[in-house]
């Protein structure tokens, strides 16, 4: 075997073991008995120890020095493996194992604290997570600690450039939101009970509409909706409130966007660094375009109105009012249930707070107060319980610092993709009106998804769209849409 072949064979086993670790995490959030938390933390620590040893195997340096790529895909594999090796060798095995053990325990502690509205029960654990993430950032950093963590989720991005983009977005978003809230249009929530079983059936119908392959996926319940795995095993979860059906519907569509990305990647890339979504920003572009530009469009909500009427009886509103309700703008507390105008403002809050946490400017003991103060400034309402505030998201319990800004970046990418896709693909809206997103899925599969990690994130979007990504298409889409709905 050549050096390249030996390296790829080694990487194949490492990727497979990583998938197994992912299945353990999925099981922990979906099916694992609560009493197994301590045991699972040891299992996660053990597999992370094996993975870290493989990622830092000295043979990788030798293989990389001698390996010759045969094509573009091979060259990109070498670049990604080298990046992973250089980063992994800077992280002590002790730290990698300790983080895996702690974050496995932490998510259970977070879930219980959230359910009990008991912030103090989670703070000591979060303090330890932050301490270890600061240590990790210091180990791999070449300057900015937060940038070192951001690199895990969006290679090449920096807090400085993301902060500048958010600054450019904030003013137009707040101004449009204020105009919307000053409108005479006032969509009212549906005052009905939406039984869990009926919601699950409708969630499956919506997932199928967006092309989710049920032979390679499944839908389950979890505290926080998520997508896990890839290739021939791409799973999603949702959550249900019997008084509010849209959280379930749009969480499901969102996670289907992630899963169909993974399901569409070229099978030839399986068990290589190319065989998964290239970054969380690009991943979020797939989930957010499905959820928003497609799933909240008038044609699709017209179809959804019919399906909900079939499931629950007369809703008491017509398709036009239903579309306005699905796109209702309000000062809500929960990021995953927020409207398109407020969503990015939720992300900007988290981005600023977690940067301060990693830099040491903000300590965990002061996080809840900092969150609540900033939230009232940005949204004009007071947080009354931790589940509305800093305990609402699972990410920090898992040590996912640097992840949050990729949601807003994903929205920006989705705006670009939507503009390019609609210019190139007639018939998208006609299909959506029939509950069929296959035209959009086909374009996304062929222009983005099939390539997996073949190109860096921004190049992936540039290749698909034919232009350099910016926030302009997203802001134009939001302005046109909400001016029409709210008759501005």
TrEMBL record:
Give a yes or no for keyword Transit peptide in this entry: no
User: Per its UniProt entry, what is the enzyme's top EC class, as one word?
Assistant: hydrolase
Location of the active site = 255
Necessary cofactors = Zn(2+)
Which keywords has UniProt assigned to this entry?
Answer: Carboxypeptidase, Hydrolase, Metal-binding, Metalloprotease, Protease, Zinc
Binding positions for Zn(2+) per the UniProt entry: 254, 258, 284
> Looking at the record's lineage, which domain of life comes first?
Bacteria
- Which InterPro entries does this entry report, sorted A to Z? Peptidase_M32_Taq
A Pfam family (short name) is: Peptidase_M32
Q: What PROSITE patterns has UniProt attached to this entry?
A: PEPTIDASE_M32
Query: GO terms for biological process?
Result: proteolysis
Citing just one GO molecular function, the answer is: metal ion binding
Q: How is the cofactor bound?
A: Binds 1 zinc ion per subunit.
PANTHER family from the xrefs? CARBOXYPEPTIDASE 1, METAL-DEPENDENT CARBOXYPEPTIDASE
What is this protein's function?
Answer: Broad specificity carboxypetidase that releases amino acids sequentially from the C-terminus, including neutral, aromatic, polar and basic residues.
Entry protein name:
Metal-dependent carboxypeptidase
């Amino acid at each position: 075997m050549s050096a390249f072949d030996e390296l790829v064979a080694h990487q194949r086993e490492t990727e497979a073991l990583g998938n197994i670790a992912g299945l353990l995490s999925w099981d922990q959030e979906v099916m694992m008995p609560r009493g197994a938390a301590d045991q699972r933390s040891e299992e996660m620590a053990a597999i992370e120890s094996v993975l870290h040893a493989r990622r830092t195997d000295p043979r990788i340096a030798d293989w990389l020095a001698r390996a010759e790529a045969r094509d573009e895909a091979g060259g990109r594999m070498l670049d990604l493996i080298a990046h992973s090796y250089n980063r992994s060798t800077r992280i002590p095995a002790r730290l990698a194992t300790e983080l895996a053990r702690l974050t496995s325990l932490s998510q259970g502690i977070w879930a219980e604290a959230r359910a009990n509205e008991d912030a103090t029960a989670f703070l000591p654990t979060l303090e330890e997570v932050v301490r270890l993430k600061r240590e990790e950032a210091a180990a791999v950093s070449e300057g900015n600690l937060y940038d070192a963590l951001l690199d895990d989720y969006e290679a090449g991005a920096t807090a400085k450039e993301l902060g500048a983009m958010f600054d450019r977005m904030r003013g137009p978003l707040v101004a449009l939101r204020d105009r919307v809230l000053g409108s005479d249009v006032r969509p009212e929530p549906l005052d009905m009970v939406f039984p869990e079983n009926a919601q699950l059936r409708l969630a499956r119908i919506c997932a199928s509409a967006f092309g989710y392959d049920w032979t390679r996926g499944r839908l389950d319940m979890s505290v926080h909706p998520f997508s896990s795995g890839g290739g021939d095993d791409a799973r999603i979860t949702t959550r249900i409130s019997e008084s509010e059906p849209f959280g379930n519907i749009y969480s499901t569509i969102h996670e289907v966007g992630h899963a169909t990305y993974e399901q569409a990647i070229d099978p030839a890339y399986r068990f290589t660094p190319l065989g998964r979504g290239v970054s969380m920003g690009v991943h979020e572009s797939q989930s957010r375009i499905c959820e928003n530009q497609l799933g909240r469009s008038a044609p699709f909500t017209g179809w959804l109105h019919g399906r909900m009427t079939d499931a629950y009886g007369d809703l008491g509103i017509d398709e036009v009012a239903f579309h306005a309700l699905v796109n209702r703008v309000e000062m809500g507390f929960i990021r995953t249930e927020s409207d398109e105008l407020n969503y990015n403002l939720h992300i900007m809050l988290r981005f600023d707070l977690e940067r301060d946490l990693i830099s040491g400017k903000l300590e965990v003991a002061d996080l809840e107060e900092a969150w609540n103060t900033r939230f009232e400034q940005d949204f004009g309402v007071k947080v009354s319980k931790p589940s509305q505030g800093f305990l609402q998201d699972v990410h920090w319990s898992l040590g996912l610092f640097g992840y949050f800004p990729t949601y807003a970046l994903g929205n920006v990418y989705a705006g670009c993709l939507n503009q390019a896709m609609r210019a190139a693909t007639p018939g998208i809206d006609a299909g959506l009106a029939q509950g069929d997103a296959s035209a959009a899925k086909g374009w996304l599969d062929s222009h983005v998804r099939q390539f997996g990690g073949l190109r860096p994130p921004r190049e992936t979007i540039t290749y698909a769209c034919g232009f350099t990504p910016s926030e302009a298409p997203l802001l134009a889409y939001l302005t046109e849409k909400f001016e029409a709905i709210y008759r501005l």
